[in-house]
Every structure is written in structure tokens, then in C-alpha cells.
Specification:
The structure is a single chain. By secondary structure, this protein is an alpha+beta fold. It has one domain (about 15-70). It contains three helices and two strands, in the order H-H-H-E-E. The longest helix has 5 residues, at about 1-5. The two termini are about 20 Å apart.
Amino acid sequence: MIKDLNSYKKFKEHILYGRYITNDSIFKLNDQYYFSELGTSSDNKPVYYFKFGSGKKKILIWSQMHGNESTS
């Protein structure tokens, strides 16, 4: 676990920073990750599916009540 934490700077996406992370800032990474529209919300806004990597480890990424307020 500590080894992975020490590697954080190596894997951090520096384009994603600050209090708010928008879809537009994430979409700029589209050559590195897979994005797809999964469906729509009750407000008819798109709900996206993001796939990061293809290894054996599974990582859950979640958001809070307000999806644009990061918990990082």
C-alpha cells in the first residue's frame, strides 16, 4: 500500500486539479481513457462511463451529492 501511495505523483493527472473537476477537463484526456455515454439523468443530462486502465486491480471512484465537487 505505501509503495502505491509513494507513486501518486507519477500517476496523477495534472490537468485535473482544483475544487471543481468538469466533464470538459476530463474529456481532454480522451486519448488516454475510454469514455462513453451510459444514459441520461432524470434531468435529461448525460451520465458518462469512464474506463481507466485494464489491469487486474479494480478501483471504485465515486462522487458526492454534487458531482462537480471533488473529494480529492
